[in-house]
Specification:
Elements: E1 2-10, H1 14-21, H2 24-27, E2 34-41, E3 44-53, E4 56-70, E5 74-81, E6 86-97, E7 100-111, H3 116-145
Helix pairs in contact: 1-3
């Protein structure tokens, strides 16, 4: 399993962070390698990512299911590979102290099946970078929209 966690401090109140991250349409494009997404309902969506790994172009689709919405401080989700055999989970947490909000993003991904042994080194390298880039990108966008 690969895990990535990244924390940022944003000089806004926690409600501003919640208003942004609770709307998937606002931050979907902040996910690294994002290509497109389709909202199925308010708790489920299909995300498509496209990137190059060691010179090989790869498109990956994942189902994202929101499992918890706890306003204004926590969103949990689960991932399931559609195009590849992987599962995962993640969450956003936000805590306000003195008018500033500490936001943390955690993502865990586990590759399965025959291809899992080949994908695991790539996932272990990529997931921490995804968590960091996603968190930083969302923080920048929150500052712009706040």
């Amino acid at each position: 399993m690969a895990t990535g966690t990244h924390t940022v401090e944003i000089p806004v109140e926690v409600q501003a962070v919640w208003d942004y991250v609770s709307d998937l349409e606002k931050w979907a494009t902040a996910v690294p390698a994002y290509k497109e997404h389709e909202i199925i309902n308010d708790k489920q969506s299909i995300w498509t990512f496209e990137g190059n790994v060691k010179g090989i172009k790869k498109t990956i689709q994942a189902q994202v299911d929101i499992t918890e919405w706890n306003e204004p401080s926590n969103i949990k989700f689960e991932l399931k590979g559609i195009s590849d055999n992987f599962t995962g989970s993640g969450q956003f947490t936000a805590e306000e102290v003195n008018g500033k909000t500490t936001m943390t993003c955690t993502v865990e991904v586990n590759a399965g099946g025959i291809s899992g042994a080949l994908l695991t080194p790539v996932i272990k390298w990529a997931v921490p970078k995804v968590a960091s880039r996603l968190t930083e990108s969302i923080a920048r966008k929150i500052l712009v929209f706040s």
